[in-house]
C-alpha cells in the first residue's frame, strides 16, 4: 500500500543493525509462529521459541519448517510459565526483545510487568502505534491506544516521554507532541484539557525532555496547518505533529481503528517503558504490520542498548 512506503527507510535502517535475538512466548499457532518466521526471513530477528518442545516441533512440521531450523526452549504446556521463561531470558540478557505468541495478552503482559521479571523501569509501561496514512507526509506515533485505560497526568507524562524516546530512536531529532482533546481551548469542565496544558508546561520546565509538547489541540489542528491557521493557533506543533497523545484508551483505540480500516493506514506496534522492546503481535496483523513492528523494535532495541 502507498502509506506503507513511509516505513521503508526504517526497514532499511533496521536491517543495517542486524538481527536481534528475540524470545517468542508460546507461539503455538500457525499465525504466531509464522510471524516469527516472517520476521526472521526479513532479516530483523533471530527467534528463540519458548514453549512445549513437542508441540512446537509438531507445528513446525505441519508448516513445512525444517526440524532444528529454529531454537526451542522447552517449557511445560502452560501459557503463564512460557511467558515467565521468555521474560527471564530477556532479563538475563539472553534475548534482546520479547514477542507475544498465541497466548492471552493478559498472561503475556503479566509476565512482562511482574516485579521479578526485572523488565520494568521507573516509568509507566505504555504502548505506541507507529502509523502512516496517505494524507500525512510523515510517520507519526499514536499513544496510548492499548495499555493505559484512563491515565493520570503523571502517567501521561511517562507516556509522552516513552513516545518521544521512541521517535528519537526512529530518527526524529526533536519530536513534536500534540496532546489531543476535543477542543484547543483549556476548559475546566474538560479535565483532559487541563492535563494537556500541564503537560505542555512540564515540557517547558524540562520535566519531559527531548521534544516539543503543545496542547490541548483538537485532531484537525494537530495534523493540519490550514486548520490551525484558520483558528489562529500559533504553535510549533500544530499541523506538524510526530506524536499524537490521546486522553484515554477509548479515544486512542477508536482513532487507531478508524485510521486503519477507513484510511488504510500502515502500522507498527510496540510496548514501551520496559528494558527491552516488547512486541504484541496479533493474528489479525498483516504481514506488513508484523515486519514494520519488528523493524521499529530493532531500532528501539539499538537505542536502549546505548
Can you offer a commentary on this structure?
The longest helix has 18 residues, at 287-304. The model has no long low-confidence stretch (mean pLDDT 93). Helix 1 (8-17) packs across helix 11 and helix 2 (30-42) crosses helix 11 (287-304). The protein starts with 7 loop residues before the first helix and ends with a helix. It folds into two domains: 18-120 and 274-305, Rossmann fold; 126-263, Isopropylmalate Dehydrogenase (3-Layer(aba) Sandwich), CATH 3.40.718. The protein contains eleven helices and eleven strands. Helix content is 42%, strand content 18%. The strands form two sheets. The chain has a six-stranded mixed β-sheet with strand order 8-7-9-6-5-10, with helices on both faces. With 306 residues, the protein is α/β, with parallel strands linked by helices. The radius of gyration is 20 Å and the shape is elongated.
What would CATH call the architecture of the largest domain?
Answer: 3-Layer(aba) Sandwich
Radius of gyration: 20 Å
What is the count of structural domains? 2
Relative helix content: 40-55%
Q: What is the total tally of β strands?
A: 11
| Order of strands across the main sheet | 8-7-9-6-5-10
InterPro entries: P_Ac_Bu_trans (IPR012147), Phos_Acetyltrans/Butyryltrans (IPR050500), PTA_PTB (IPR002505)
Keywords: Acyltransferase, Transferase
Domain Phosphate acetyl/butaryl transferase: 81-298
Protein name: Phosphate acetyltransferase
Amino acid at each position: 500500500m502507498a502509506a506503507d512506503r513511509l516505513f521503508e527507510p526504517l526497514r532499511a535502517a533496521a536491517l543495517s543493525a542486524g538481527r536481534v535475538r528475540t524470545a517468542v512466548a508460546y507461539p503455538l499457532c500457525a499465525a504466531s509462529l509464522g510471524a516469527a518466521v516472517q520476521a526472521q526471513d526479513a532479516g530483523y530477528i533471530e527467534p528463540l521459541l519458548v514453549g512445549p518442545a513437542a508441540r512446537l516441533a509438531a507445528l513446525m512440521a505441519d508448516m513445512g519448517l525444517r526440524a532444528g531450523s529454529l531454537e526451542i526452549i522447552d517449557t511445560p504446556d502452560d501459557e503463564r510459565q512460557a511467558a515467565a521463561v521468555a521474560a527471564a531470558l530477556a532479563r538475563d540478557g539472553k534475548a534482546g526483545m520479547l514477542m507475544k505468541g498465541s497466548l492471552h495478552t493478559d498472561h503475556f503482559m503479566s509476565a512482562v510487568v511482574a516485579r521479578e521479571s526485572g523488565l520494568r523501569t521507573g516509568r509507566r509501561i505504555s504502548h505506541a502505534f507507529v502509523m502512516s496514512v496517505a494524507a500525512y507526509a510523515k510517520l507519526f506515533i499514536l499513544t496510548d491506544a492499548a495499555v493505559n485505560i484512563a491515565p493520570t497526568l503523571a502517567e501521561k507524562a511517562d507516556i509522552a516521554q516513552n513516545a518521544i524516546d521512541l521517535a528519537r530512536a526512529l530518527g526524529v531529532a526533536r519530536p513534536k507532541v500534540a496532546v489531543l482533546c476535543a477542543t484547543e481551548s483549556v476548559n475546566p469542565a474538560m479535565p483532559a484539557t487541563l492535563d494537556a496544558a500541564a503537560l505542555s508546561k512540564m515540557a517547558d520546565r524540562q520535566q519531559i525532555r527531548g521534544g516539543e509538547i503543545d496542547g490541548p489541540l483538537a485532531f484537525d489542528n494537530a495534523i493540519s496547518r490550514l486548520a490551525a491557521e484558520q483558528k489562529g493557533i500559533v504553535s510549533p506543533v500544530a499541523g506538524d505533529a510526530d506524536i499524537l497523545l490521546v486522553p484515554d484508551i477509548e479515544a486512542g483505540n477508536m482513532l487507531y481503528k478508524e485510521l486503519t480500516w477507513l484510511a488504510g493506514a500502515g502500522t507498527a506496534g510496540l510496548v514501551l517503558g520496559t528494558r527491552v522492546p516488547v512486541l504484541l503481535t496479533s493474528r489479525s496483523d498483516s504481514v506488513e504490520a508484523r515486519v514494520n513492528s519488528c523493524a521499529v523494535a530493532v531500532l528501539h532495541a539499538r537505542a536502549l542498548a546505548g
